[in-house]
Amino acid sequence: MIEGFVALYIFMLAAFTGYEVISKVPVILHTPLMSGSNFIHGIVLVGAMVALGHAQTGLEQFVGFVGVLLAAGNVVGGFVVTERMLDMFKASGKGGK
């Protein structure tokens, strides 16, 4: 029972810390931060798939599936944002190279 409270406490602390860190990032840095953290989203996706593979009950499978779904969304979203950011640096074609 105590282990569950410790895990919940760690989760809440991580969520609060993550929110505080991200909320302090200037708007101009959000896109580079997103593109630079794609590898972290990939690691989260692999971890969610491993957790889903070890799920035994229906609730564990549901939570694992939601984790995989959200992690995959993060990876795809990160690549979409990175592509849009890189498109901003391409030559426009009007008098350019």
From TrEMBL:
Transmembrane segments: 6-27, 39-56, 62-81
Domain annotation NAD(P) transhydrogenase alpha subunit C-terminal: ranges: 8-90
Membrane disposition: Multi-pass membrane protein
Superkingdom to which the source organism belongs: Bacteria
GO MF entry, a single one: NADP binding
Subcellular location: Cell inner membrane
The protein's name in its UniProt record: proton-translocating NAD(P)(+) transhydrogenase
Originating species: Acidihalobacter prosperus
